[in-house]
Design goal:
Blueprint lengths: L1 H8 L4 E9 L6 H15 L3 E10 L5 H8 L6 E6 L5 H11 L4 E4 L11 H9 L4 E5 L6 E3 L3 H18 L11 E4 H4 L9 H13 L4 E5 L1 E3 L10 H27 L38
Parallel strand pairs: 1-2, 1-4, 2-3, 5-8, 6-9
Antiparallel strand pairs: 4-7, 5-7
Length: 293
């Protein structure tokens, strides 16, 4: 009878795909394999993970090294772009290739501890459409990150927060968990680092339910950053300008009176604010929660 009861309460593992963009990351692949091995053990038995490594046109030994380090992994696929398209395009490729509803993306340099994906997946199960790791959340942390990168990333996140009128603290983190059916068809104009912020912003404009998980962002240990500062800066400026116009137009459209009606119908706000599902802030109607440029 005891055995029957245990069998009755057994729950089938939830399928999850972990997407890792790669661009000239040959030196860090062995460390990545060790980190994903720890993640794989932590995810089971609640989740059934598979892994998509997206090579974004690497010119070094990234693909060869990945094939060697993951040779014994049965649930790893390596997909390659014929040329470098940018980190947002690599994640986009992973989202489209995934065959699971829950998809995560993770930096190849493991500047975020991969284990942070566990509480992020729990937030997806609670109803979030997207969960982002958030070092700029009051409970998040940054360790030894170069000042130039921190200024660009934190500054951009603050501007997106202001333009979109949301309580989210971080827009530039690649460490995320997604509900695939909600985000896979979002059209991105930017393929590089700016596209990471664009995906989150466009989801918010469509009323998506976004959560953030406080996390620690650490300095890269292997290889070099692929970011081009001027290009990313200009990309953020153009995107912020576009979003400001779109957000203002949407607000005016939704709040404009309908002259053909004697009584204007009630309209909800222009968008639902992102739900923050972990941290204890006193925000009305919200629970609190969290490839970084």
């Amino acid at each position: 009878m005891m055995a029957l009861n245990r069998h009755h309460h057994w729950k089938k593992p939830t399928p999850v795909t972990v997407v890792v963009p790669l661009f000239n990351e040959a030196d860090g692949i062995p460390h990545l394999a060790q980190a994903l091995s720890r993640l794989d053990r932590a995810l089971r038995p609640r989740y059934a993970p598979t892994y998509l490594l997206i090579d974004d046109g690497s010119t070094d030994a990234t693909v060869v090294t990945a094939k060697t380090c993951f040779a014994d992994w049965l649930r790893v696929r390596i997909l390659s772009h014929p040329e470098n398209r940018g980190i947002a395009r690599a994640i986009e490729t992973g989202l489209r290739a995934a065959q699971t509803e829950f998809v995560c993306s993770l930096d190849a340099d493991c500047t975020y501890d991969p284990l942070v994906l566990l509480p992020m997946l729990h937030l997806l199960e609670e109803g979030a459409d997207l969960v982002t790791a958030s070092p700029y959340h009051p409970l998040g942390k940054v360790e030894q990150v170069p000042a130039w990168r921190l200024a660009l990333s934190r500054g951009a996140s603050l501007l997106y927060r202001t333009v979109l009128r949301t309580r989210l603290h971080t827009f530039t983190s690649c460490c995320r968990a997604y509900r695939r059916s909600v985000v896979v068809n979002l059209l991105l104009r930017n393929g590089g680092f700016t596209g990471i912020a664009e995906l989150l912003a466009r989801l918010l404009l469509e009323g998506g339910n976004v959560a953030e998980q406080p996390a620690v962002l650490r300095v890269r240990r292997f290889g070099q950053s692929k970011m081009r500062i001027l290009r990313v800066f200009l990309g953020h400026c153009l995107l912020l300008t576009e979003l400001a116009v779109v957000h203002a137009f949407k607000h005016l459209t939704l709040s404009a009176p309908r002259r053909v009606l004697r009584h204007a119908p009630h309209h909800p706000g222009p968008q639902r604010h992102a739900q923050q599902l972990l941290c204890n802030q006193n925000s009305k109607g919200h629970h609190d929660t969290n490839c970084n440029t």
